[in-house]
Design brief:
By secondary structure, the chain is mainly beta. The chain has three domains: 122 residues, Immunoglobulin-like; 103 residues, Sandwich (Immunoglobulin-like); 142 residues, L,D-transpeptidase catalytic domain-like (Beta Barrel). The protein has three helices and 34 strands. It has a six-stranded mixed sheet, with no helix packed on it. A five-stranded mixed sheet has the order 4-11-10-6-7, with no helix packed on it. A four-stranded antiparallel sheet has the order 3-5-9-8, with no helix packed on it. The radius of gyration is 29 Å and the shape is elongated.
Length: 394
Amino acid sequence: MRRQRLIALALAGLLGAVAGCTSKSGGPGGGGNGPGPVIDVLEAKITSPADGAADVPASTEITFTAKGAVTTAFKLVDESGQELAGSLRSDGSSWVPQVPLAYGTKYTVTLNVEGAGGLKLAGTSTFTTMRKPGNLVGVHSYIGDDQVVGVGAPFVFTFDRAVPEGLRAGLEKRLFFSSEPKQEGSWNWFSGTEIHYRPKEHWQPGTKINVRIGTGGLPWGGGWYGRHDLTIRASVVDKPLLIEVDNATKKMTVTQGGTVLRTMPVSLGKPSTPSSYGNMVVMIKNEWEWFDTTTFGIPPDSPGGYRTKVYWPMRLTWGGEYIHAAPWSVDAQGRRNVSHGCVNLSTANAKWLWDLVHIGDPVVVKGTEHKLDWGNGWTDWDRPWEEYVKGSAL
């Protein structure tokens, strides 16, 4: 048997190579034709940014093609020789720097590939990022770094400027979410300035979560760019808490880890200002807040108006529905509804619950006269999963 190895290298601008290997042997007894040539091909090319490109966005990713590669590695350095960390996307479509690139800086990227036969290729490309733009858009998170959240917590991010619909898919690709253990989840655009992420089912207790909102330098349209990246590390409570409120019984049941901790009398919204029924979560908790009807146009000294300091408020909707202490309605709690839409508790019960609650703990209200409006708070759990995922631009 005769074996021949041929290697041809073609470095045209960026990187490309072909390696061929043929093997041919005769049939039984030395006669006839053996199998045809077997060709092993190794090709690779950096496709973007193009070699010598200028005015490259600081959010750029390195895209490439690679055929026959067993391993692929990148090295990105700035003009001072400082190397930047990064990683391949899970689908292998691009290599993503770990942080936004610096403005007005020259970078060199090296692509190294190795084929099954041990052939190794390397090529480089250089490009320069754009100058820092004047119009920058900030991003904000309701959940802070190292925060412990409830099992129903959606991760909510807001932008200072609306993302045009045609750019939302591209921006969503720059939102990196991981959990340990891994759980299926989806993004949902509540509006052009607000996007949420929730898992298919409630978070598993003890889950560790890492988020990178990779919008630093990202083109926003209309000459605007993302101001910065935002990273969040968070964890989920070890024991899931569930708050259930039933209008039929006028009671709240609090369960933790499958064990009922307490059942408490409540008073909900009276017929003219009913509480919403549906699936909510605790969004905000404060030791006290001023409840003031002037915020929606009713002076305190007019009929239906008030300005009251309320203790142990736990917010459920943007429309002003809370769980809170209401010592003035204790006689009605467990018997009739007298509130303006909130869930009233005694001061002792409200303080007990407030001490227990985390942002993102699920709250289910049943049997009231008004269905929870979508987007009136973190209503992520008030739609089935099959419908929720349609809110993703991808």
